[in-house]
Design a protein that fits this description.
disordered C terminus; mainly alpha; 10 helices; 251 residues
Length: 251
């Protein structure tokens, strides 16, 4: 009997030890899976994105209705906005309409149609057409003015920082940007330039949103090459140019 109980105790101890070993092997295998696999997944997730963004394109564009408009989430509204801009460009650029002339002609046509419609309905004993009470809401105008004020002040602060001579890179970028705009202005007038920008805003974001997996690797290569060229330019030319004071002088 004693030997029988001793054998049962040994078998019970063996079973417990096997279970403990099995759990240890499972946990070790899980930890092994979590190690290199997790590291590889993190590397895959850290994909280069254009302009260093970490958020979706819709969020980068500000979200809401403006982003929906630029990304063609509502195709009717986006196509309508692009169509209206195209008609305006054709009228002013190709037909050579002037703004004041166009506004006056539209008002003359609208007033004549409504006036004749109202008088014709009175002769045939019908009610005149309902004329809506049009008014500009105050809240959107104030919000737009507030946002515009913030952006203008931010631009003034950026210009002040560039003029102070503290950041040579921003100075060169500003000079290059203004030079490119001057070249474009010599090729076309302001309306055509505005229309080109409007069309680009309605085509480039949506194309990038659909093909960003192909565009981002090419942008990464271009970014690396530009950084190399800038490093060479900085070491040979820019670093030798004296810069402004890093801090404002105190009285």
């Amino acid at each position: 009997m004693a030997e029988h109980h001793h054998d049962e105790a040994d078998s019970l101890v063996d079973k417990i030890s096997e279970k403990i070993r099995g759990r240890g092997d499972d946990s070790s295998s899980d930890s092994d899976d979590d190690g290199p696999g997790a590291a590889a997944s993190e590397v895959k997730n850290k994909v280069f994105r254009l302009f260093g963004r970490e958020r979706p394109v819709h969020t980068v564009l500000g979200g809401g209705k403006p982003a929906d408009l630029l990304l063609w989430r509502d195709k009717k509204i986006s196509a309508g906005a692009l169509g209206v801009a195209t008609v305006i460009w054709i009228l002013f650029e190709l037909v050579q309409y002037h703004l004041l002339t166009l506004v006056c002609h539209i008002l003359i046509l609208a007033l004549a149609i409504l006036f004749l419609w109202s008088n014709a309905n009175s002769f045939i004993n019908k009610r005149p057409p309902p004329i809506p009470d049009v008014s500009i809401p105050e809240k959107p105008v104030l919000e737009f003015a507030s946002v515009l004020t913030v952006e203008i002040n931010r631009s003034f602060a950026l210009l002040r920082e560039i003029i102070s001579g503290r950041d040579l890179k921003k100075f060169l970028m500003a000079i290059t940007g203004f030079w490119v705009l001057s070249v474009l202005g010599s090729w076309c007038n302001f309306l055509t330039l505005f229309y080109i920008v409007f069309v680009l805003l309605h085509t480039v974001p949506v194309l990038y949103d659909k093909h960003q997996d192909k565009v981002d690797p090419l942008a990464e290569k271009a970014s690396i090459e530009l950084k190399k060229h800038y490093a060479v330019l900085d070491s040979k030319v820019l670093s030798k140019i004296p810069r402004g004071p890093l801090k404002d002088k105190k009285a």
